[in-house]
């Protein structure tokens, strides 16, 4: 029968807590489990990758995964780990977000094939939208005491004296709505396990309680650890905010760079969590990395694997090529292959100056381009000295005094890359 799903999570460092007997229960036969996703944006971000990987491993172990898009709960907001309420969405936006999320999940889960354990996407808005408030408090609310709900950490933390915000009734009822989802999936899809991050334990067990009290059945709960970075900063955030799975929100180049810049300690942890490499393959990589940490074998393999799963092999190749532009030996042809978004990503933070198109059409003398037109170098004298030292490149190719920048040098019809020595870059933007 099924592979041992819990054992897989254990060695990968992906198991935080599970109800007693969950492991034995899953070894008996194919079981259905679900994870909830918040549809408040039309893309998931890498903070969602752990629960996505839970479902992917679950399906690979022979079980049936359900991805629940929280259309109804997205309309009220989950208090777990949040200090403020979130914005509420209309139905059209929710449906659009749901489709976008399904397309991202389908890179990890098999929704299409005819196998018994094909993944299923459900939206709790579909069963909550016609459930009246009176019916809900009569059929669901009466089974759970306020004392039970108040004992949950997600509630206690928000109504404690430290929280200035307090907690609205809407958010207080969230655990009942999430608990009802579990009951609904239990009844309609024989879904007996809910999985999520460790901050979801309280909400998940409210669901198992409803299954016991209303349906006389047994539900199981399993959580994974919340991912942290060894330096204490938040996983899944870069300087620009969330690292998204959607290429339009976070380019494949920036996505690749995020994983490549992982510390040694984190890379060893992340490669188990975010890739499908086997225990043996990972052990070999870890040993190889320890012998020569400066080669960053773990980081490179981690970045390669995750970029291919989330984006594609072609996106990975482009990201590697773009990375080599800053740090490796690349040519003006490589630069001209970059699309505008990737070019701007690669040279993000590099100083820029604007030059009029007519100046380029007439040919912009290299000394003017280095000094008075851009301020890249302080003076014409410094520009001449740098040219004599052969330390100036235009689009990665060395130039000498007397060189003129023309339309032929433009990247994407609008950029020219100046460089002094190895590390000093400057971008001319032609307007």
Automatic annotation (TrEMBL):
Cellular location(s): Cytoplasm
Sorted alphabetically, which InterPro entries does this protein's record hold?
A: aa-tRNA-synth_I_CS, aa-tRNA-synth_Ic, Rossmann-like_a/b/a_fold, S4_RNA-bd_sf, SYY-like_C, Tyr-tRNA-ligase, Tyr-tRNA-ligase_bac-type, Tyr-tRNA-ligase_bac_1
The reactions it catalyses are: tRNA(Tyr) + L-tyrosine + ATP = L-tyrosyl-tRNA(Tyr) + AMP + diphosphate + H(+)
Indicate which residues the UniProt annotation says bind ATP: 237
Cellular component aspect of the GO annotation: cytosol
| Chief location bin | cytoplasm
Binding-site residues, L-tyrosine:
34, 174, 178
- Can you supply a Gene Ontology BP term from the record? tyrosyl-tRNA aminoacylation
Q: Name the EC number(s).
A: 6.1.1.1
Question: Which PROSITE patterns does the entry link to?
Answer: AA_TRNA_LIGASE_I (PS00178), S4 (PS50889)
Known function: Catalyzes the attachment of tyrosine to tRNA(Tyr) in a two-step reaction: tyrosine is first activated by ATP to form Tyr-AMP and then transferred to the acceptor end of tRNA(Tyr).
How it assembles, according to the record, is: Homodimer.
Tell me the protein family, please: Belongs to the class-I aminoacyl-tRNA synthetase family. TyrS type 1 subfamily.
Protein name per UniProt: Tyrosine--tRNA ligase
Organism from which the protein derives: Aquimarina algiphila
């Amino acid at each position: 029968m099924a592979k041992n799903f819990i054992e897989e999570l254990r060695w990968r460092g992906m198991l935080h807590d599970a109800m007693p007997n969950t492991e034995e229960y899953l070894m008996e036969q194919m079981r259905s489990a679900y994870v909830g996703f918040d549809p408040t944006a039309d893309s998931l971000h890498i903070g969602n990758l752990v629960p996505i990987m839970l479902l992917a491993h679950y399906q690979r172990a022979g079980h049936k995964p359900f991805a629940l898009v929280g259309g109804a709960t997205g309309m009220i907001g989950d208090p777990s780990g949040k200090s403020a309420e979130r914005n509420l969405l209309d139905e059209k936006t929710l449906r659009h977000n749901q489709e976008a999320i399904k397309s991202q999940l389908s890179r990890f889960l098999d929704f299409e094939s005819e196998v018994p354990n094909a993944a299923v996407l459900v939206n709790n808005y579909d069963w909550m939208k016609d459930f009246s408030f009176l019916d809900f408090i009569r059929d669901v609310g009466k089974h759970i005491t306020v004392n039970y709900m108040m004992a949950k950490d997600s509630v206690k933390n928000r109504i404690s004296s430290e929280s200035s915000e307090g907690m609205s009734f809407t958010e207080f009822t969230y655990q009942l709505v999430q608990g009802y989802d579990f009951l609904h999936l239990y009844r309609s899809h024989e879904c007996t396990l809910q999985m999520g991050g460790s901050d979801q334990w309280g909400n998940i067990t409210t669901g198992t309680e409803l299954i016991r009290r209303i349906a006389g059945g047994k539900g199981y709960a399993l959580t994974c650890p919340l991912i942290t970075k060894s330096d204490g900063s938040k996983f899944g955030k870069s300087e620009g905010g969330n690292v998204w799975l959607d290429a339009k929100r976070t380019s494949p180049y920036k996505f690749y760079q995020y994983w490549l810049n992982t510390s040694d300690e984190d890379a060893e942890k992340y490669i188990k969590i975010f890739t499908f490499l086997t225990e043996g393959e990972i052990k070999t990589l870890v040993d190889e990395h320890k012998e020569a940490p400066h080669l960053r074998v773990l980081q490179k393999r981690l970045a390669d694997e995750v970029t291919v799963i989330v984006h594609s092999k072609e996106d990975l190749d482009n990201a590697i090529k773009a990375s080599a532009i800053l740090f490796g030996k690349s040519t003006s042809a490589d630069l001209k292959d970059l699309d505008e978004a990737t070019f701007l990503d690669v040279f993000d933070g590099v100083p820029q100056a604007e030059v009029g198109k007519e100046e380029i059409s007439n040919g912009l003398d290299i000394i003017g381009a280095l000094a008075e037109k851009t301020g890249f170098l302080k003076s014409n004298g410094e520009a001449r000295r740098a040219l004599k030292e052969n330390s100036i490149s235009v689009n990665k190719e060395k130039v000498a005094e007397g060189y003129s920048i023309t339309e032929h040098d433009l990247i994407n019809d609008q950029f020219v890359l100046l460089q002094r020595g190895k590390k000093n870059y400057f971008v001319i933007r032609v307007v």
